[in-house]
Design a protein that fits this description.
Elements: H1 6-15, E1 31-34, H2 39-55, E2 60-65, E3 74-80, H3 89-100, H4 104-117, E4 127-132, H5 138-151, E5 155-161, H6 164-176, H7 188-202, E6 210-213, H8 218-230, E7 236-239, H9 255-261, E8 277-281, E9 288-293, E10 299-302, H10 304-321, E11 330-334, H11 340-347, E12 352-354, H12 359-366, E13 371-375, E14 381-385, H13 387-395, H14 401-416, H15 424-438, H16 442-446, E15 454-460, E16 468-470, E17 475-478, H17 480-490, E18 497-502, E19 508-514, H18 518-535
Parallel strand pairs: 2-4, 4-5, 6-7, 6-8, 11-12, 11-13
Antiparallel strand pairs: 1-3, 2-3, 8-9, 9-10, 13-14, 15-19, 16-17, 18-19
Helix pairs in contact: 1-5, 2-3, 2-5, 3-4, 7-8, 7-14, 10-11, 10-14, 10-15, 17-18
Length: 547
């Protein structure tokens, strides 16, 4: 029986001591906090990724160093499983316990525990592929990760600076190479080729250029490369591409800015002209928000819900045109944050499921449909084609030329859309394809349904763990009094809907409210914040209007 390489682990672990008094948690999107305290976490993630690879008989595990849409000073890390999907939930606990072991000797105890409980054969090889976004703290953190991989003797493959979805793509490619599920060439060029070839099959004539806000993040680099591949059909006009300027990442720009402020990034004022459409990526290019100015210069936002509505109805029509609507069930997965109008729009057309926040929940629920469309309102999402659906599309004999065309288009979509995780660049190409096929302007797309006015606020609480939710986070089980007050308040507002949930990424609880009229939503959200402050809020941070 092989054993843990203790000498190397102990020696290298001592170089990366855990900061005292700090507790880390593997949350919704991995570990995420201030970049300069993450060294020990990265080292330990290196150890865990190696064990995870051994568990899969040496299959490649991915590690992405990013803090997505968070401020530039933050950083984070998450693991990617062999099929390019998020780390299985049961291993999140191992990640957390390793990260929190106070000393090297406790760390070794935890490692031994994981090896025993997860039944890991240490004689197996381990392979880990990793990358980072453009954050200044990233390079040093990758070195800590590499020490962890070195300690375990893992084979390392450094992909440098790239987007989160490209990292997921590469992991899937490496692990499917030479099998019947081969996903693509396992290099960045393979990714751009795959997307651009599918895009060219689906686009008949060039649309007007698209303005893209790259959040001053890694998406800028990837979008430039993509432009070289698709420029003859769709020209991307890139803004916020300052990837080496300090302080600008996600600052006043990017998908999260657009969603939370419901405004055009100031840097695009005067750039985006009336009648034009644009989009924003987030800091690691896995979220996408579209927007436009109408002829009267009014700003309109097209979020993940609007993307789900646009894309799912297009796919439903293609499936019908292919004559396969009896065999292929198209479904949509949303979270409680989905605008009530979007849910009503979708429910008339397709089965719709609501799941808790976080990509892993949406992804798994989407796998239950033949074609599962999932998008969070914040712009993260993708469309999954089940293996049996792909088989059917590849083997079905069409009876008419129209059916044949629809089948070819569905197959091209399955190549265009990243099957591993939400991908802003791939989603952007998808949106462009649907807009072109429907001959929609952004205004027409926006008019599929009208969003209910809504408001998202957060309240700082000493202990967000006290908030326990049920029914896909739409109701609180604890504290009971808070839910009772929410129910009583919501009843007073026409079209009212609201929920309170603990954040999975920050020490806050989030409050979402919607109602038929804008002033009423603002009032409802503010009264709900008051309720949370009454029960649990940090009184020193209570804004005056909630007193
Ligand atoms: C993370 C999740 C995102 C979710 C958000 C919620 C992934 C890859 N990302 O960014 O899906 O919407 O967290 O944050 O799962 P919250 O729990 O702080 O509201
Ligand atoms: Mg992101």
């Amino acid at each position: 029986m092989a054993s843990l390489p203790l000498d190397a682990i102990v020696h290298l672990s001592d170089l990366h001591p855990k900061p005292e008094g700090k507790t880390f948690g593997y949350g919704t999107a991995g570990f995420r906090t201030t970049g300069n305290i993450l060294g020990s976490v990265l080292f330990r993630v290196g150890l865990l990724a190696s064990l995870r690879s051994k568990k899969f008989d040496g299959k490649t595990i991915g590690v992405m160093v990013t803090a997505s849409h968070n401020p530039e000073g933050d950083n984070g890390v998450k693991l990617v499983d062999p099929r390019g999907e998020m780390l299985e939930t049961s291993w999140e606990t191992y990640a957390t316990s390793l990260a929190n072991a106070a000393t090297t000797s406790k760390l070794v105890d935890e490692l031994r525990h994981i090896v025993a409980v997860a039944k890991i054969d240490l004689s197996k090889p381990s392979r880990v592929l990793y990358a980072r976004d453009t954050r200044p703290s990233g390079a040093a953190l990758v070195q800590c990760l590499e020490d962890g991989l070195r300690a375990m003797g893992a084979q390392r493959r450094n992909e440098g600076v790239t987007t989160t979805p490209i990292l997921h793509y590469l992991v899937r490619c490496v692990n499917t190479k030479g099998t019947r599920d081969e996903y693509g060439d396992d290099n960045e060029e393979g990714y751009y080729d795959k997307l651009s070839n599918a895009f060219k099959k689906l686009m008949a004539k060039p649309p007007p250029p698209l303005i893209m806000d790259c959040a001053n993040g890694v998406g800028a680099i990837a979008a430039q490369k993509l432009n070289e591949h698709i420029g003859s059909i769709l020209q991307l006009k890139l803004y916020n591409i300052a990837t080496t300027t300090a302080g600008v990442l996600n600052n006043g720009c990017g998908a999260d800015y657009v969603k939370t402020t419901q405004r055009l990034p100031p840097s695009l004022h005067g750039v985006l002209k009336p009648g034009e459409r644009g989009c924003s990526l987030d800091g690691d290019a896995d979220r996408l928000m579209y927007f436009y100015l109408d002829e009267e210069n009014n700003f309109g936002m097209l979020d993940g819900d609007k993307i789900a509505a646009l894309v799912s109805s297009f796919i439903v029509d293609l499936v019908k045109n292919a004559g396969l609507d009896k065999q292929i069930e198209v479904g949509v997965v949303q979270t409680a944050y989905a605008n009530g109008s979007s849910t009503r729009y979708l429910e008339k057309r397709v089965p719709v499921r609501c799941v808790p926040t976080g990509v892993k929940h949406l992804h798994h629920a989407a796998e239950h449909f033949s074609i599962g469309v999932y998008f969070e309102a914040n712009g993260h999402g993708t469309v999954l084609f089940s293996p049996s659906t792909l088989d059917l599309l590849r083997t079905h004999e069409p009876s008419t030329p129209a059916q044949e065309t629809a089948i070819k288009q569905l197959l091209a979509l399955s190549e265009l859309i990243n099957q591993t995780v939400g991908d802003a660049l791939s989603d952007m190409l998808l949106v462009e394809v649907v807009l072109a096929h429907r001959a929609f302007t952004a205004v027409e797309w926006d008019s599929l349904y009208t969003d209910l006015p809504n408001r998202l606020v957060k309240v700082v609480v000493p202990s967000r763990q006290k908030f326990i939710t049920t029914d896909a986070e739409r109701r609180l089980v604890e504290p009971k009094e808070v839910q009772a007050r929410i129910d009583a308040l919501v009843r007073k507002y026409d079209g009212g809907r609201a929920f309170v949930r603990p954040s999975g990424t920050e020490d806050v609880v989030r409050i979402y409210a919607e109602a038929t009229l804008r002033p009423q939503v603002d009032e409802l959200a503010s009264r709900l914040s008051g309720v949370v402050y009454d029960f649990e809020g940090d009184q020193s941070k209570r804004p005056k209007e909630y007193l």
